[in-house]
Amino acid sequence: MNTPLDTDADNFDVLIVGGGMVGASMACALGKQNLSVGVIEAFPLRSHSQPSYDARSIALAYGSRRILEGLAIWDLFKSDISAIKKIHISDQGHFGVTRLDSQQVGVNALGYVVENRVIGSALNEKLRQFENIQLICPAKLIDLFINENFASITIEQDQQKRTLKSKLIIAADGANSAVRKQLAIDCHHWEYGQTAIISTVSPRKPHHNIAYERFTSSGPVALLPLSENRCSLVLTVRDENKEEILALNDAQFLSHLEQRFGYRLGGFHKTAKRSAYPLTMMRAKEHIRKRVVFIGNAAHTVHPIAGQGFNLGIRDVSQLAETLILNHRAHKDLGCLGVLKQYEKRRKPDQIKVAAITDTLARIFSNEFAPLAHARSSGLFLADIIPPLKHQIARQAMGVTGRLPRLSRGLSI
Ligand SMILES: Cc1cc2nc3c(=O)[nH]c(=O)nc-3n(C[C@H](O)[C@H](O)[C@H](O)COP(=O)(O)OP(=O)(O)OC[C@H]3O[C@@H](n4cnc5c(N)ncnc54)[C@H](O)[C@@H]3O)c2cc1C
């Protein structure tokens, strides 16, 4: 039974820790509900130092578009997106190639590319429209205590400590989750020995809205189409080569890129600033505790090889919103394990599948062991010529496989 907390400003039904891409989307999904929601975010949302809304661009799957449309966020940034009409996957030095085409799957686009900063400002604008949402920012969680009937957290805001109470804490505070550390929740974690160097580059030939993924012995190179014939680049390098590649001047960097990617786009003539992200895989050993649930990168971090991290996180949002809203209408205590287990059970298969696919891809496509290189090349070739296999890969990339929550199916909750 949902017994209300005292109604002063520091008591909430739901407190979301982390107002990044996933946490802010979660808050929007609970907007307009008869629930008091607080969002605690360490960085000012409009600041350049905000780590979730940085210079990266993100590939949004078709399924994520449906969720963002359901949350009325999509329209706020749709003029800034670039559609992915085709995906071209190749393996440097080997014959196999797979081509996925939106027309063959019967959709206008396989996915969309948008700059993180653009999504950030749309989420920020949307969040401020809801009267039931209180943005507590900049503020940092420093302590957490789980009680029988509520969770109590201490935050630091304006150099003052403040205690907030809530029926449920949603931890969306990223890969180094402070909530996870407070609760001493262990995780499966490994490093790939690779770093993603991201930038924006301009090819000499038109990209025709094709996304490219090229596997090379040092790791994958991904190019996502952007407006004005620019491409968002994710260049994976071995950790030991990171400093050297970051130190290259622009001409040297573009020539390194041409060696890795080849001349399918006629070479490159312009590059923007570069940033580096170490690549890791992480899965928290517990995704729920009484009064706490983990979503997005706080629950699982995957290699960006298939551009799945945020797409996975927004599907967490979609399912958790559905579970919480339906149980709230049934007057259930949202922090009880029974409710949180419903969420966990629904999300686990997709999370495990995507983690397994990305991890396998990251490993087999960075390995030059000859029989393995031959097998993966044959795999790409077969995927290109066997229509049902190709269709299944396209549906997976579009984020429309498995049991989908209502928002993912374009339905309201
Ligand atoms: C190179 C690269 C390319 C990628 N490309 C893609 C792609 O194409 N498609 C895709 O779907 N995904 C992609 N991803 C993954 C995607 O960026 C992440 O999955 C996504 O950003 C996770 O969002 P999040 O909100 O869960 O975590 P984060 O973005 O880490 O946000 C966490 C938030 O919590 C806040 N916070 C942290 N600690 C505290 C605290 N103690 N108190 C208060 N607030 C706190 C932080 O300030 C931050 O705003 C890529 C990742 C990388 C590294």
Task: Tell me what the structure shows.
With 413 residues, the protein is an alpha+beta fold. It has a domain at 11-81 and 116-189 and 280-367: FAD/NAD(P)-binding domain (3-Layer(bba) Sandwich). The chain contains twelve helices and 20 strands. It has helices spanning 21-29, 62-70, 74-77, 102-105, 116-127, 178-182, 242-246, 250-261, 309-329, 337-364, 370-385, 387-398; strands spanning 11-17, 37-40, 57-61, 82-84, 86-91, 97-101, 111-115, 133-136, 140-146, 151-157, 160-171, 187-203, 210-216, 219-225, 231-238, 268-271, 275-284, 288-289, 292-294, 300-301. The strands form three sheets. Strands 5, 6, 12, 13, 14, 15, 16, 17 and 20 form a nine-stranded mixed sheet that branches. Strands 1, 2, 8, 9, 10, 11, 18 and 19 form an eight-stranded mixed sheet that branches. Strands 3-7-4 form a three-stranded antiparallel sheet. Strand 10 (151-157) and strand 11 (160-171) form a beta hairpin. Residues 1-7 have low confidence and may be disordered.
